[in-house]
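Still learning. Any example?
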Amino acid sequence: MKKRVLALLMAAVLLLLLTGCSNKVKDTEAAISAITAAENNGGNKTQAIKEAEELYNALEDDQKEKVSNASVLRVAQAELAIDCIGFVSEYDIFQPLTVEGRISTANSAYNRLTAEEKKQVTNYAELAEASELLADAKAIKAGAQTYAEKLFASCARLFKRSESIQLKRAWCHASGLTTIFYDFTFEFELKNAYGITETVYYGNSLSIMDLDEKSISLASTGLVLGSANLYFVEGETSAMDNSGSIQLDAAAIQSYFRRNR
């Protein structure tokens, strides 16, 4: 008798557990369905995705496999990640670098999808364009770094006390489409004939013609030196810290100069 009662109790507990698991799966499916409803009816899709994510992430792995519309959630997550990238400029060359993390997150979300799910992502074109602009910006930045190293070495050798030159910061502004125009500014210190350390700002420009598939040739023959614009100033100059400029690796530029002076 006792064994029979115990067996019935165990069966009841198991039934309750299974019912609870089933309810969690159904609640998650309902929350995911709410994403589509919010999108079709002008509701808060972002909030709907967040609520569905919380329910889905709380499930055990075997429960997640039972969620019949999980693919809807994955597609919605990828679309939201793409929307979160925001504006990516085609003309402000280095601007895509400021949203590199968002582009990377969106690509990760998209790449987790199956081939069929990827076809359902309605804003993939935005991700593709942002990724291409980011790749261009990285290539142009790499070119700027290489050209800056050569340019600074050329400028620094003009000084008699070149061994005392210490580069502090370097900026680059780039513009153009098929022809990239670089504007460089270097801030460095050197000791004059009286042993006094002065802060010097050196500016120069160059252009790189005919980009091949939007990549930059780093051949030394492509380096075009403009006329030097050398001037002395005191303190900081905020004109170089504009939104269209990036700071380059000053340590690498200094190292190149030391090796090639």
Summary: The helical segments are 2-40, 45-57, 61-64, 70-83, 100-111, 115-118, 124-156, 250-260. The first helix runs from residue 2 to 40.
